[in-house]
Amino acid sequence: MKATIKEIARICGVSSGTVDRALNNRPGISEKTKKKIVEVAKELNYQPDFTARSLVMGRTMTIGIVLFDLYNRSFAQLMNAIEANARKRGYFVYITLTDKNPESEKKCIEYLINRKVDGIILFSVNQGEAFSQYLRQFKTPIITIFNYVSDHFEYIGIKEREAMKNAVEHMVKKKYKRFIYISPPLAFQGKSNIYTQEERLKGFLEGLTAGNITIAPEIIKDKNYIDILSLMELKTTDQTAIVCSCDLYALEVMNYLKSIGLHIPKDVGVFGFDDIDMLKYISPRLTTVQYPIEEIGEMAITSMIQRIEQGSFLHIPLLDYKMIEGESI
After folding, report:
1. Which residue, of 25, 33, 262, 299, is most buried by count of CB atoms within 10 Å of its CB?
2. Upper half-sphere CA count for residue 295 (Cβ side, 13 Å)
3. pLDDT tens-digit profile of 270-319?
4. Residue 43: which domain range?
5. Same domain for 166 and 149?
6. 96 occurs within a structural domain
7. Would residue 237 count as lying in a domain?
8. Peptide bond before 284: cis, by omega within 30 degrees of 0?
9. Bridge partner list, 143
10. Residue (of 155, 198, 162, 181) closest to 322 by Cα position
11. What's this model's pTM, rounded to 2 decimal places?
């Protein structure tokens, strides 16, 4: 026979509400009582009845996630942080992937709405007032991450522009005078929401101005950026830095430079952005900006659950970043 909360409460000599708090890791209960309840639940092989709980609480205990894809290692790290923190709070996650397609993104959102998720965490490719109004028609709470949509929605991100500006100033201090900037997503400027990439570009240009760099930067927006690099003279009297808007581009650039016999950073410097976990296997160690990807996931879940359970989001200021000084600059 299936164990119930009432049975656990009777054995432990507490109320059903106390059992619910213990099993869902909520405050208002002593550690001693919580431990006893959890042990009894394990002995009885208690399994929560999510359908019944949803009817009583008016919630499904699920949160929807809308991402581009999982090819970028940062997104995989983000999902691990979101899922782990949601599970600790008694919530499950539905993940949907848009492949950066605006219409697919809307279908993903509507899929999650129809399955009555309690909230949605959205990394959007859509933008503009029409899309903001589209989102506002739904009653489901929405948090946007990375790509800003509008002031109508909670936003969690980092100081993108400031981080890239400081990175360029750091390179200027190291005597770099010629800069090449690689960011293929910029090809979608005006067509898709690339807020984070636009902020990084602005920071890059502001850093050049602050550093009094007189050589005009070369900005590569083409997805075939290695082909374009192959047409450039990279080893010049003016020390060259190749600045990439994410680590994956930087790793491709480093492989290319090695393949043509150029030394990093003696001949050409390389800078990335994100500090993905696989960098520990790369030599020379890439100089990059550490993106607090796991903290973004944790904060998104914390804010969303506060909105679901208490009616208001936890307002989170832009998160900070950290320069990781490797050996590539």
Report:
1. 299
2. 13
3. 999 999 888 999 999 999 999 899 999 999 999 999 999 999 999 999 99
4. 5-48
5. no
6. yes
7. yes
8. yes
9. 121, 154
10. 162
11. 0.81
